[in-house]
Amino acid sequence: MAEKTTKLAPLVTDLDEQLETLTRGTVDVVTEEELVRRVKKSIATKTPLTVKVGFDPTAPDIHLGHAVLLRKMHHFQKMGHRVIFLIGDFTGMIGDPTGRSKTRPALTREDIAANAETYKRQCFKILDPELTEIRFNSEWLGTLGSDGLIKLAARYNVARMLERKDFKTRFNAGKTIAIHEFLYPLAQAYDSVALKADVELGGTDQLFNLNVGRDIMPSYDLEPQLILTTPLLEGLDGVEKMSKSLDNYVGIEEDPGNAFGKLMSVSDDLMWRYYELCTDISLSGIENMQRLVKEGSLHPKRAKEGLASTIVAEFHGEAAAQAAQQGFKALFENKEIPDDIPEKEVAAGDGSWPLGKLLNEVGLAASNGEGNRLVRGGGVQIDGDKVPGDRRELNCRPGDKIVIKAGKRRFVRVTFV
Which structural domain range is residue 209 located in? Predict the structure, then answer.
């Protein structure tokens, strides 16, 4: 199942440029001294480092939170190193216990195969397809066999495994830890052995797993891999980690207009973190913008438009970014209603519709209760007028037409029949 490439970008020979690029936006570097030594050796011997990053295809979509790690992979590509996008089709069937309070359900082979195809397509919105080596860890883990698995397990101990925060918390609380969950970090570590990785990248929540690989590699007569972690990107709410389940995410294949609007909703403070982690604008350029905003010569909203345009352009092109920006201004600055909003026909019935139920009926709320919460929170407008939070019903007659707006970007044109 391997999809290999031998093409590499020219190795950058400026040590300072390499170190600045490779460590930008990282949290953990294990260890900095080793990184300097290995990069120096790489330049001197004209031998690129092998950089491994694993992705379990547990969901079909990649969002900006995943893109932080993909961007760091791209940095290594630009510096001339060999980057392996490792799809965990074997480990996905175990289930990564990281951050879990209970055992993660295992995926089927069909789910993994379908999600892996989506990952392969989406990752090339950031990575250079000609410089990316795609591998599947079933290539070696699937043939390890029971004998090999026992020998692998013998290289680590339970006490070290229980040092992991997730396991320790569950163990102390008397919650179940399935034996196969201990195999996950070991399988991930063996990936590093099989690929002879010089560097492994991951989010900060993966630090334990990454260190297991570093710990066992010497027992295979390999030099311990370097570890670089990237931060977990806060979602649009600025509180929780970006996650599709929390609906605080921006998908890299999301509609450009919708993505632009979502990015314009982030706080002025969070904007700078997105600039650093989600764009390749230089740190000095970001600091200059911050200074201009502080001095009052650059409005935060204009800076945020620059952020949204930069991110949308990367994934959808300049034309799409310009159209998204124009659409946003027309909608929110000129108070225009877009032309291409969905249209729904709704039965007028007895001439009265509960507002929460109506929002659910036309697709602006997932349930009647959610619709009622939107109204109470002041997030609903009808024909441009804000609906009072205590209003519960809408009177209507056959032939009436209204435009309902829920939240900042969702519209529906309703015709009562």
Answer: 15-230
Task: Please give the full DSSP string across 91-109, using - where no structure is assigned.
Answer: GGGT---TT-SSPPPPPPH
Give yes or no: residues 56 and 182 share one domain: yes
Q: 92 pLDDT exceeds 80?
A: no
Would you say residue 242 lies in a domain?
no
Residue 158 sits in the same domain as residue 46? yes
Task: Report residue 81 CA to chain centroid gap.
Answer: 23
Is 81 found in the same domain as 186?
Answer: yes
> Exposure pattern of 377-395 as b/e (b: 16+ CB <10 Å)?
eebbebeeeebeeeeeebe
Please tell me whether residue 318 adopts helix, strand or coil conformation. helix
Q: What is the CA radius of gyration of the chain?
A: 25
Q: Are residues 121 and 220 in the same domain?
A: yes
Alpha helices in 250-383 (DSSP H): 256-264, 268-278, 283-295, 300-316, 318-328, 355-361, 368-376
**239 occurs within a structural domain:** no
pLDDT tens for residues 44-90? Answer: 999 999 999 998 776 667 889 989 999 999 999 999 999 999 988 88
Residue that is written with structure tokens 């830890």 in the block: 177
pLDDT for res 333: 65
In a domain, 316, yes or no: yes
Q: How far apart are CA 13 and CA 288, in angstroms?
A: 28
Higher pLDDT, 408 or 40: 40
Give the three-class secondary structure for 327.
Answer: helix
Q: Which residues pair with 55 in a beta bridge?
A: 87
Give the CATH number for residue 354: 3.10.290.10
Q: Distance between CA 385 and CA 417 in Å, rounded?
A: 23
Predicted TM-score (pTM) of this structure: 0.71
